[in-house]
């Protein structure tokens, strides 16, 4: 497994790989890998000749009062895990390597970022668009892999690719969960033991909400009651929208999503389903 | 010469061309071709196996009170001219083909668009960035060709490519001029006979300004006097900036640029030069 830290090294590898007629899959991550990331690599392995995983805690997608500095990092462990699942290249650049200068030109997510996490984290998805665009261009990847746990991110990136004609295919990965249902997340390490036990109720609340919605009942109030009763976390939002349009207009799939702020970790989770098929 | 009108046709051609290991140069235009465009094709022919010219009057870069509807168009004549200089493919899509739906995601030029034409045409360069990004992705071109007459556009596109790591090389084409010095422009057809004679003084004013600047004298006031005396047009701006930074900080090259509004045509012109080499 190659570990590349500079744009020049990556471009050279991409050039050689393309020249050899091989396809490339990219799995963009912020590191501190868990099984969610690794399942994306496994999917990418099946569909591409070579798999690049980027590991970059992207400052552009953190707000001034968010957890950029204390976001968990462990590159040594990440390398071992990435190697074990057959990653061909890790691209782990420095911030200066990715952002050598300020850019006057901006990508903004617009109304797609006015709901769910975007409403609570102004500028977050603009930062995601920036880094993802750069990674797509640098790797010239045929396919890119994103988990459905970050459902709004996935929807926004799908829109980016469609609206700006990127020649990359976006592949969705299922959310990977702990045995008790908690969605895997790098931020789970910041839960206290008590909070960790409470956190299994996020998925349960979503299941309750889904069942109510399918019976044409309001899911939100009962979910608030349930979460308030079973966790000490503060509910950031509970929303039900069309997916991936992220609008109130529901055509096929819907997303039922929530965010709960615990003491040191803000957790998100969601269910995406087609009401007609349930 | 192929004439393609849909994104799907273009993508198929690009796929086949890339598979054959051939390089692609793109010359983005709004049609109504003149020798400036054709010189870009000739340059592109020298440096690439295949040359695509796009012909698309891009509504996204016209303001509500600008000349989108009456922008000159003549696809039949354009095809003849493009063929004569060896263009391999014309891509001439409809507006619906390029913009099948509204996009929530926007590219904005920022401070680079707060000077020169950008200050007078809000949103213009955002629209340029949008169409150029789409064309770069669709053609997967190795090189793209832009004329220095649209110097601010060129600087902004160079910044786009650098800051977002596009794998495309931007190539600058010299401004092509009429015998009397008037810069070739599709909009020149809208000049009256009197205005056409006056318009040669734009280049002369720039030369006067450059000479003064090199003598460390203010170029702007004398240029205003000269243009007021020799043309009936209204001066939109005269500016001197670093290039391609488009800031007041001059490091190497400078741009001396002007815009003059005639009755039915707004003309722009500029000189880019390195004061240390003059």
Furnish the topology, listing elements before pairings.
The structure is a homodimer of 278-residue chains.
Chain A: E1 2-4, H1 7-19, E2 24-29, H2 35-47, E3 50-55, H3 75-84, E4 89-91, H4 95-98, E5 106-108, H5 116-120, H6 124-139, E6 143-147, H7 151-163, E7 169-173, H8 193-214, H9 220-230, E8 234-242, E9 254-261, E10 266-273
Parallel strand pairs in A: 1-4, 2-3, 2-6, 3-4, 6-7
Antiparallel strand pairs in A: 8-9, 9-10
Task: Explain this structure.
The structure is a homodimer of 278-residue chains. The first copy, chain A, is α/β, with parallel strands linked by helices. Chain A has two domains: 2-173, Rossmann fold, CATH 3.40.50; 186-271, Pantoate-beta-alanine ligase, C-terminal domain (Pantoate--beta-alanine Ligase, Chain: A,domain 2). In chain A, 38% of the residues lie in helices and 20% in strands. Chain A has nine helices and ten strands. In chain A, strands 1-4-3-2-6-7 form a six-stranded parallel beta sheet, sandwiched between helices. The first copy, chain A, has a three-stranded antiparallel beta sheet with strand order 8-9-10. The model of chain A has no long low-confidence stretch (mean pLDDT 97). At the A-B interface, strand 5, helix 6 and helix 7 of A face strand 5, helix 6 and helix 7 of B. Strand 5 of chain A pairs antiparallel with strand 5 of chain B. Chains A, B: Beta-alanine binds at residue 61. Chains A, B: Pathway: Cofactor biosynthesis; (R)-pantothenate biosynthesis; (R)-pantothenate from (R)-pantoate and beta-alanine: step 1/1. Chains A, B: The active site is at 37 (proton donor).
């Amino acid at each position: 497994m190659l570990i590349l830290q500079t744009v020049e090294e990556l471009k050279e590898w991409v050039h050689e790989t393309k020249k050899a007629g091989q396809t490339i899959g990219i799995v963009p991550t912020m590191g501190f890998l868990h099984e969610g990331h690794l399942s994306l690599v496994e999917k990418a392995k099946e569909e591409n000749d070579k798999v690049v995983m980027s590991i970059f805690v992207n400052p552009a997608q953190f707000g001034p009062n968010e957890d950029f500095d204390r976001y968990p990092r462990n590159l040594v462990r990440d390398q071992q895990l990435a190697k074990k699942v057959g990653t061909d290249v890790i691209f782990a650049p420095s911030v200066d390597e990715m952002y050598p200068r300020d850019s006057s030109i901006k990508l903004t997510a617009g109304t797609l970022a006015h709901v769910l996490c975007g409403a609570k984290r102004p500028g977050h998805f603009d930062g995601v668009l920036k880094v993802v665009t750069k990674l797509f261009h640098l790797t010239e990847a045929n396919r890119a892999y994103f988990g459905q746990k970050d459902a709004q991110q996935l929807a926004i990136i799908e829109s980016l690719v469609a609206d700006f004609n990127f020649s990359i295919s976006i592949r969705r990965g299922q959310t990977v969960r702990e045995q008790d249902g908690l969605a895997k997340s790098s931020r789970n390490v910041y839960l206290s033991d008590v909070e960790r036990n409470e956190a299994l109720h996020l998925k349960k609340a979503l299941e309750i909400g889904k069942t109510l919605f399918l019976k044409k009942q309001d899911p939100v109030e009962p979910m608030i009651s349930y979460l308030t009763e079973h966790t000490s976390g503060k509910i950031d939002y509970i929303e039900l929208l069309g997916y991936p349009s992220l609008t109130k207009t529901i055509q096929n799939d819907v997303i039922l999503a929530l965010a709960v702020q615990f003491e040191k970790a803000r957790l998100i989770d969601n269910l995406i389903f087609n009401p007609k098929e349930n």
